[in-house]
C-alpha cells in the first residue's frame, strides 16, 4: 500500500481537481450541465418507483427502456451497477438514489450548443413521460411526499454507506439523497482558474436565491424559497458549504477534504473518522482518497473543472438563465473582474442567509440585479457564436420576470400542485 501524505494529496488536488486535463485546452470556455428531475405519478403525486414496486405508481425504468429504444439510446450500467442510458451525441441519463433522473449533457464548445442538447433531450422526455402518467418535476425538492413516501431505491454500497452516515447527522441526509433535484453548471478552468474559483464561490448564494423554486415540501409551505437549500445547510457542514481561501485555495480545500469523515471507509467503534486520521494511520489508499473526494458536496466542486451546484432544478424554458449567469461572469474577461468587485469574497454567512431568505433579503436582491446585468453583458461580449441572441433573450426574459423585480420562481409556487 502506498503511504499517503499531505504533500502528495495537495499535489493530487493541484494536478487533478484544480487543473484541467490536456484535452480541455483544445476548446477553451467549454460548458456542461446536469439537470435532475423528480418523477411522480401525475394523477396522485406519488413517487414513481424505478421498477415494479411502489404501490401502483408507474415505474420509470420500463418507460425509459421503451422511450430510449425509439431514440437510439444505449442501455447499460454505471460503475455502481445501476441502470444507465448513453445518448447519441454524448451524455448520459442515470438514476439518483431516490429514483430522480439525472441527464448529464456532454461538454460543449458553447452555451447555445449545450442548450440544444438539453432541450432536445429533456423536452421530448417529459412529454413522453406525461403520456404514460408520469410527471417529471423540475423542482428543487419533492413538493408532494414526505420522506416516508420516498424510499431509498438504489442500495449500492456507496449509497447505503452514505445513507447510514448521514442518518447519524440528522434527517436531512435522507431528504437530500431521495427527494432533491438540482441544475448544475460545469465550467472549464482555462487561463483564469483562481479568479473563476473565487467568483463562482462568491456567486453561489445569489444562484441559490435567484433560482429558488422549492418553497413547498410534503404539501406544506416551508417558509423558505428553497427548501432544497435549507436541506443542504442542515446536512453536514463537514462536507458542504464554501471551502475557499484567497491565499491558499488548494491547501484550504485539502483541509476541508481531510477533515471530512470518510464515510466510505469502515467505522471504528461506530465512529466515522476524518480522512486525515486514516491518512496518518496508513489505512487509506489513493483510490480511497479519490472516492472520498466524490463524497464532498461544496457549492462549487473542483473536478478538473468547476461544478456550480447551487441552483434548484430549473424548468426547461429557463435553462438559458443559469448558463448565462455562470458563463457571463466566468468567461468574459471584463465581466469577471466586475463580478469579483461586486461580490467581494465568498461568504458562508451570506450562503446561510440566501438559503433562508433568498431575494426577500434586500441586500441579496439588490446585488442579484447587478450580477445578472453583468452576466448578460458578459454573454453579449462572448458573441453570437457562443450565446445565440435568441438564447440570450430567453435568459434576459427570466431575469426580467423574476430577478429584476425582486422575485424568484418560488414566488409563483402557491401550492404543491403548482410545482408541477
Could you describe the 3D structure shown?
This protein is of the alpha+beta class. The chain has a single domain, classed as Creatine Kinase, Chain A, domain 2 (2-Layer Sandwich), CATH 3.30.590. 43% of the residues lie in helices and 13% in strands. It is built from 15 helices and 13 strands. Strands 1, 2, 3, 4, 5, 6, 7, 12 and 13 form a nine-stranded antiparallel β-sheet that branches. Strands 8-9 form a two-stranded antiparallel sheet. The longest helix is centred in the first third of the chain and has 21 residues. It is globular, with a radius of gyration of 21 Å.
Give a quick rundown of the structure.
This protein is an alpha+beta fold. Helix content is 43%, strand content 13%. The protein has a single domain (6-319), classed as 2-Layer Sandwich (Creatine Kinase, Chain A, domain 2).
Amino acid at each position: 500500500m502506498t503511504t499517503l501524505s499531505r504533500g502528495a494529496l495537495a499535489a493530487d488536488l493541484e494536478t487533478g481537481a484544480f487543473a484541467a486535463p490536456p484535452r480541455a485546452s483544445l476548446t477553451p470556455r467549454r460548458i456542461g450541465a446536469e439537470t435532475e428531475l423528480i418523477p411522480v405519478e401525475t394523477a396522485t403525486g406519488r413517487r414513481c418507483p424505478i421498477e415494479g414496486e411502489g404501490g401502483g405508481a408507474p415505474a420509470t425504468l420500463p418507460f425509459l427502456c421503451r422511450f430510449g429504444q425509439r431514440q437510439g439510446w444505449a442501455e447499460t450500467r454505471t460503475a455502481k451497477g445501476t441502470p444507465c442510458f448513453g445518448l447519441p451525441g454524448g451524455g448520459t441519463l442515470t438514476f439518483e438514489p431516490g429514483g430522480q433522473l439525472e441527464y448529464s449533457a456532454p461538454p460543449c464548445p458553447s452555451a447555445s450548443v449545450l442548450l440544444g442538447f438539453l432541450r432536445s433531450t429533456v423536452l421530448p422526455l417529459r412529454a413522453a413521460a406525461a403520456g404514460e402518467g408520469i410527471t417529471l418535476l423540475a423542482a428543487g425538492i419533492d413538493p408532494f411526499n414526505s420522506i416516508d413516501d420516498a424510499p431509498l431505491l438504489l442500495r449500492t454500497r456507496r449509497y447505503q454507506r452514505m445513507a447510514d452516515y448521514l442518518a447519524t447527522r440528522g434527517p436531512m441526509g435522507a431528504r437530500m439523497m431521495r427527494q432533491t433535484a438540482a441544475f448544475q453548471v460545469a465550467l472549464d478552468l482555462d487561463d483564469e482558474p483562481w479568479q473563476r474559483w473565487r467568483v463562482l464561490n462568491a456567486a453561489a448564494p445569489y444562484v441559490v436565491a435567484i433560482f429558488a423554486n422549492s418553497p413547498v415540501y410534503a404539501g406544506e409551505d416551508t417558509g423558505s424559497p428553497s427548501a432544497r437549500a435549507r436541506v443542504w445547510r442542515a446536512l453536514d457542514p463537514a462536507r458542504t458549504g464554501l471551502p475557499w481561501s484567497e491565499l491558499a485555495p488548494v491547501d484550504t480545500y485539502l483541509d476541508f477534504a481531510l477533515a471530512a469523515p470518510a464515510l466510505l471507509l469502515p467505522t471504528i467503534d461506530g465512529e466515522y473518522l476524518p480522512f486525515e486520521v486514516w491518512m496518518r494511520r496508513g489505512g487509506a489508499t489513493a483510490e480511497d482518497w479519490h472516492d472520498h473526494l466524490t463524497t464532498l458536496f461544496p457549492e462549487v466542486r473542483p473536478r478538473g473543472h468547476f461544478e456550480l451546484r447551487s441552483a434548484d432544478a430549473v424548468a426547461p424554458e429557463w435553462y438559458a438563465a443559469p448558463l448565462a449567469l455562470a458563463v457571463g461572469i466566468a468567461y468574459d474577461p471584463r465581466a469577471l473582474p466586475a463580478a469579483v468587485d461586486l461580490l467581494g469574497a465568498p461568504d458562508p454567512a451570506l450562503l446561510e442567509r440566501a438559503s433562508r431568505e433568498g431575494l426577500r433579503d434586500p441586500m441579496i436582491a439588490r446585488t442579484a440585479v447587478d450580477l445578472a446585468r453583468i452576466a448578460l453583458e458578459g454573454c453579449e461580449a462572448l458573441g453570437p457564436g457562443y450565446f445565440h441572441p435568441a438564447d440570450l433573450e430567453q435568459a434576459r426574459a427570466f431575469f426580467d420576470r423574476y430577478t429584476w423585480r425582486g422575485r424568484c420562481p418560488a414566488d409563483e409556487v402557491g401550492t404543491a400542485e403548482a410545482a408541477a
